[in-house]
Amino acid sequence: MLGSRRLLVTGCGGFVGGAVAHEAGPGWETKALTRGPALLRRPNLEWRTLDILDERALAGVFEEAAPDAVIHCAAIADIDVCEREQDKAYDVNVGVTQTLARLCRTRGTRLVYVSTDTVFDGAKGGYLETDPPGPLNWYAETKVAAERIVSDMPQNWVVARTSLVMGLPLLTNGVSSIGRAMRILQNEGRLAVSPREIRSPIDVVTLARALLEIARAEFKGYIHLAGNDVLNRFEMTRRAAVKFGLPQDGVVPRDDNEVKVGAPRPLDVSLSNARARALLKTPMLGLEAGLELSLSTKKGVAS
Ligand SMILES: NC(=O)c1ccc[n+]([C@@H]2O[C@H](COP(=O)([O-])OP(=O)(O)OC[C@H]3O[C@@H](n4cnc5c(N)ncnc54)[C@H](OP(=O)(O)O)[C@@H]3O)[C@@H](O)[C@H]2O)c1
User: Fold this and answer.
1) Residue 175's pLDDT is what?
2) Which among 65, 67, 135, 219 counts the fewest CB atoms within 10 Å?
């Protein structure tokens, strides 16, 4: 029987952080950080409301929690918001990571930093952990800068780069990109999606379980968390529509030349999940199995 360990999770009002808080079982004493209200009452799970940009408040919570591990999910994750509000994005995405890395270093706490497939330039796809990043937008610049801070720690760190995350938020009615797409399809009967952007989507429950497994493990370095299917967004959305019981014919290919896009996006940032499959017990899934898992977990959420 594994002993209980102390865990701090940031960004728990968000899509990924909320799933981590939900999936952290009795093997963890979890403190969930958020700017908002507590979202799930359960033994071994405590919520702390704070502005994560307040360095002293963050250090105070860290000291009180005395965590064995931190899973750092909080970020401004919207590519276009980062492009428009570059200083704020830097403070949240890089500055907070810097503070957490310093705190973790002092205590010897394990830091699991959640990064993104978007650090790559998208020219080749199938990216390995050893491939060099090539950020195309400010969001990606901030994530690469934060990765470097974490990887400068002498020990006990992991940079977990995730692919596009699938499924619905477990703890809130907040947004996930597929949830938004399905709502539009349901309300308008038609949705145009780019066939050019290629991803290797992972469902949010598998991602949360993998992050928790990594928080308990001992290896350090980079790891790519991605599903087993590599496909373009158009195909992905059609297949998701079937799972959501919506008409897949309503999903049509978008002509990207006719649409005003915001910050530049990489084309093919599919990730190789070979290292994750070799190191982790948490199985990486294909698109349908991942959606199935996240939808059935969402149905079972006790709030
Ligand atoms: N979703 C994806 O497809 C995807 C793909 C690749 C990588 N990622 C990475 O995964 C992580 C989680 O992303 P997500 O999809 O869960 O995003 P999300 O739903 O937007 O959640 C991010 C959370 O970060 C916290 N946060 C955001 N802005 C903040 C601010 N100004 N001050 C303080 N806290 C702030 C918030 O937590 P509270 O509401 O609790 O305060 C927010 O809910 C991010 O690091 C992102 O880069 C996500």
Assistant:
1) 79
2) 219
Q: Which residue, by CA, sits nearest to atom 43 of ligand 1?
A: 14
> How much is the pTM?
0.97
Q: Is residue 179 classed exposed, middle or buried when 0-12, 13-18 and 19+ CB atoms within 10 A define those classes?
A: middle
Mutate to test the pocket of ligand 1, among 165, 172, 180 (most ligand atoms within 8 A of CB): 165
> 117: closest CA among 133, 130, 98, 95?
133
Separation of 280 CA from ligand 1 center, angstroms? 24
Q: For residue 72, give the 3-state DSSP assignment.
A: strand
Among 15, 55, 159, 163, which is best to mutate for testing ligand 1, by the most ligand atoms less than 8 A from CB? 15
Task: Say how far apart CA 231 and CA 178 lie, in whole Å.
Answer: 14
Nearest atom in ligand 1 to the alpha carbon of residue 74 is 24
Identify the sign of the CA torsion 243, 288, 123, 78: positive
Exposed / middle / buried, residue 68 (Cβ in 10 Å: 0-12, 13-18, 19+): buried
Taking the C-alpha atoms of residue 72 and residue 91, their distance in angstroms, rounded to an integer, is: 15
Q: Is the CB of 77 under 6 A from ligand 1?
A: yes
Longest dimension (CA), the chain: 57
- The DSSP bridge partners found for residue 49 are 34
Give the per-residue pLDDT at 1: 44
Q: What is the mean pLDDT of residues 116-134?
A: 98
Residue pair 31/219 in contact by the 8 Å Cβ criterion: no
CA-closest candidate to residue 133, choices 222, 73, 230 = 222
